[in-house]
Amino acid sequence: MHIEHMTIEEIKQGYQEKKFTVTEIVKSYIDRIKKLDGQMNAFIHLCEESALKEAKEMDERIKRGEILGILGGIPIAIKDNICTRGIKTTCASKMLQHFIPPYDATVVKKLKDAGAIILGKTNMDEFAMGSSTENSAFKITKNPWDLRKVPGGSSGGSAAALSAGFAPLTIGSDTGGSIRQPAAFCGNVGLKPTYGLVSRYGLIAFASSLDQIGPFTKTVRDAAISLSVLVGNDPLDGTIVQKKIENDYLSHLDKGIKGLKIGVPKEFLGEGLDKEIHEHMKKTMKHLEDLGAIIEEFSLPITDTGLSAYYIISSAEASSNLARYDGVRYGYRTEKFQTIDELMINSRSEGFGEEVKRRIMLGTFVLSSGYYDAYYKKAMLFRKKISNIFKEAFEKYDVILSPISSILPFNIGEKSKNPLQMYLSDIYTVNMNIVGVPAISIPCGFSRSKLPIGVQFIGDHYTEKKLLQVAFALEQALGIYKEVPVMKEGE
Ligand code: GLN
Question: Is pTM beyond 0.85 here?
Fold first, then answer.
């Protein structure tokens, strides 16, 4: 049984045809993780015992002829900033190293209700701040396609776990690209839904007005299945859309893209874009044209302003969200203190890593009374302007096509000493979070050194259906979704 190639759909079909049991599947994944994750570090925590117990219960339900949920018996892994009841949720931070949530995030509840079985929690950049998963307080995750390279970030553990064949579905969060960029680096499909489509309740906040949860999958069809489980109203999240939510993302997928207008921002193809990624963008445009879409280059003058606005807004919100970790209420507490001030200062100094402290300082600075107008207020004005620019673009185009990262997966350690260079690599992903629109990242080929390359389709608010449709057409035309990295034991 080659589980590393299996999609959600194939596993579901296998259960129906009684080709294998849920216990056999769960056991195979756990064996594979135990055999191979030592060299990759995708997981922070494995839930072997509970996963096998749930698998057994699921097999009994199948024997009794019960109908399983949409994800009945599907093993999944969840980024470690999403609360799981009774399972440690650390945000890859010393601050929350021993935190066991007393409740499930809404998405976790939905996944469990649909029958999914949690295999474990995945590594990430501390508090989701980073683009390489090197900022975890515990371990550095490696890219399964080349263990010298980063898997992207901040959801690098979920992306690496998916492509290494440790689960057919993993969950991540995207504040400025943290699903799409690691999906591109690891050769997965990664979806950042519209802001407000998926509940954030139980997602440990980084920047509340930008954060969204979404899936990593092998195929676009699997992404559509997963999205239908994740979406939905939630009285516990005040920012979730209060309207009837579409949850059939599958049935229209093969409608094709004849006549669809796809815009490609000129600014996204210019200076700074890696040559091989540029070549793949051109090839993708040609493929889409052959499929009947109308491709047009146009101007979307947002890249630089978007990046600056993103780092100001996200750091401002982070500084406020992370104020709750004071060593008093919960989280890490220092042993070195005499006064209450020392307790707070030392707990925060010892509990947070370097990048998190950098963002808190930046965020506090841009919100301080002397600089608020010059930075935060200006960034918010840019946010409005960028939204208008996107609005105009979507009056002309059904979908926008763009690269995800300007660079190929880079070497571990290559950028970690230069935060600004790391921030620059987010130039093509942050704007979608600023505006709140959905975007899907899909593999479009490999570099000459056999590293995955992805592209993203961006749509107007709540056009996930259309995005999935375009991504599906491209995926079928390219036919590369079955490729998995070769991994050997003890490498
Ligand atoms: N790389 C971006 C940052 O460090 C995005 C992170 C994210 O999406 N969580 O802020």
Answer: yes
Q: Report whether residue 177 contacts ligand 1, using a CB cutoff of 6 Å.
A: yes
Instruction: Domain ranges for the chain, please list them.
Output: 3-256+460-478, 303-383
Instruction: Quote the CA–CA distance of 381 and 483 in Å, as a whole number.
Output: 44
**How many helices (H) and strands (E) are present in the chain, helices listed first?**
15, 11
By alpha-carbon position, which residue is closest to atom 4 of ligand 1? 130
The per-residue pLDDT for range 37-56, each reduced to its tens digit, is: 999 999 999 999 999 999 99
| Catalytic residue status for 132 | no
- Residue whose tokens read 């969950």: 171
In short, whether 470's Cβ falls inside 6 Å of ligand 1 is: no
**Does residue 204 surpass a pLDDT of 90?**
yes
Residues across the chain? 491
The per-residue pLDDT for range 418-432, each reduced to its tens digit, is 988 899 889 999 999
400 CA → ligand 1 middle, Å: 21
Cβ proximity of 192 and 155 under 8 Å: no
Closest CA to 434 of 359, 380, 395: 380
297-323 pLDDT per residue, tens: 999 988 778 999 999 999 999 999 999
Q: Is 154 a catalytic residue?
A: yes
The CATH superfamily assigned to 3-256+460-478 is Amidase signature (AS) domain (3.90.1300.10)
